[in-house]
Structure to design on (172 residues):
């Protein structure tokens, strides 16, 4: 049954393709979120609007990344949602630290420098977040990769060899 499931799962996209999809999905959700926060803030306090939109946009982006960006083959699990939220929180901390450090390093930073620092920190955090999502959160099953890495003749020879109960238990 596992072999059938692995055969149906689409091939993982290349790193470049996944990164382009990550930028498009994440950027699209980010732009939509900025408009949503502004609209919602006209009805409720901005802090609450930002918190609500952040939760919704993180859930949406995680689903998009599971289905489209990384080709995980279906909906994101709760574990993936939790890990994705953790990586988003870490990215938020990186941008906050960069903006906190700026006035410590430059006496009176202008708006252009502030934007440059914020966008640079955001880009750095985004690349790190992409790596975490690709290599940890949405990584393909490692045992499946080990099975496909076995030479075909070794699999066939093993399949033809008689198996006793102890060997079957060890294999499971």
């Amino acid at each position: 049954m596992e072999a059938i499931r692995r055969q149906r799962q689409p091939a993982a996209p290349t790193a470049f393709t996944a990164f382009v999809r990550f930028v498009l999905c994440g950027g699209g959700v980010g732009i939509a979120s900025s408009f949503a926060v502004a609209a919602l803030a006209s009805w409720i306090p901005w802090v609450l609007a930002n918190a609500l939109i952040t939760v919704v946009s993180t859930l949406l982006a995680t689903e998009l990344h599971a289905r489209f960006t990384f080709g995980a083959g279906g909906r994101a699990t709760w574990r993936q949602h939790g890990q994705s939220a953790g990586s988003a929180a870490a990215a938020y901390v990186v941008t906050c630290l960069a903006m906190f450090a700026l006035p410590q390093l430059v006496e009176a930073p202008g708006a252009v420098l502030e934007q440059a620092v914020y966008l640079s920190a955001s880009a750095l955090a985004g690349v790190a977040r992409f790596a975490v999502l690709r290599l940890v959160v949405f990584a393909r099953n490692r045992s499946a990769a080990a099975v496909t890495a076995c030479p075909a003749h070794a699999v066939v020879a093993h399949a033809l060899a008689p198996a006793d109960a102890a060997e079957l238990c060890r294999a499971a």
